Amino acid sequence: MALASLLIILLAISSSSAALTEPLASTANPEVFPEYLGRGRGRREEEREENPYVFHSDSFRTRASSEAGEIRALPNFGEVSELLEGIRKFRVTCIEMKPNTVMLPHYIDATWILYVTRGRGYIAYVHQNELVKRKLEEGDVFGVPSGHTFYLVNNDDHNTLRIASLVRPVSTVRGEYQPFYVAGGRNPQTVYSAFSDDVLEAAFNTNVQQLERIFGGHKSGVIIHANEEQIREMMRKRGFSAGSMSAPEHPKPFNLRNQKPDFENENGRFTIAGPKNYPFLDALDVSVGLADLNPGSMTAPSLNSKSTSIGIVTNGEGRIEMACPHLGQHGWSSPRERGDQDITYQRVWAKLRTGSVYIVPAGHPITEIASTNSRLQILWFDLNTRGNERQFLAGKNNVLNTLEREIRQLSFNVPRGEEIEEVLQAQKDQVILRGPQRRSRDEARSSS
Question: According to the UniProt entry, where is the signal peptide (predicted)?
Fold first, then answer.
């Protein structure tokens, strides 16, 4: 993403077949998510058949749903496009739980990194035969290892709990993962349903009639309502003890919103959670970040040398522009089909609203631009971060300023070398800049 690996998981955008000709502040239906490639200056561009880097609400698949909440997931990235084959082993999911609800105990054959986008609650999981509970609030990052039984509780009386998450399956190479329910009945089925009666009778040392009453009664779905008394009792019980909270083998959530920003100026800020904050992320070679752009601001065009970013808009509106060498005038084209001198960089352009998800492959320069009417907050997951470097193509710290003056003059073939220096030194900000509309407005004010 364009912020500290600008890792850029969630839901609510519909596709549109109209070409992008209107500014963000247009009167277009707010539920529409139009996005096309190579948006031209002042002219209507040819509609592109597909944008493999941006996802619509109808791309999410419902994995579980009930009156109390739902779980949805994007499809396997490798099946969406060959251009996303490198992140096939990762999945993006989202969870929504209404007030006073519980997600049934289960485990998944995947490592799970969650980020709380709205609300509060707690997660409980079993580690070495100990029940560990962790309170969750907006901005928290937390991870659950694969194969560990856990459950989620929204203990708030009024607000919905919303979670965006990154999942890395461990059982298959195709990026597929499955839940294994240890509690439930008919909906959802439990893992016990796969075993024969005599085996279960021996395992539990009881008769099959009792087992059928226990494991065959629940029909209300994966997420269910609980009354206030049940919630209070769960909160009072073991798992939240001081000893458990301080045990080093049981990590606590890391809150991105409460930390000192890694970068901040008058245009916005960003905060990163990496191995130094959360060792769990180191094992996955993943970092998590949060960008907060003020209205009318933009991230300086930048690239990740090694990481691919998955960006999720958690709040606000804006747009992205990204340079891509793999998309020809009519869709994807292989580098084998053209020589280096024939490469053209297509502009991938998409409107952003709360819930938008987009992918930024390594090496692809990108900028995120906030609407002049609202802040733009982006959660990002950076994948393959070990050894990654972020390089800026504009701003005070851009890579061109690092090169020798002679190289710059030779490369741009500008007769007056001083003009190159004037252009490169004109921007006094770095990382987060004034966006196009805000810059034009400020210049108009200064000249009047």
Answer: 1-18
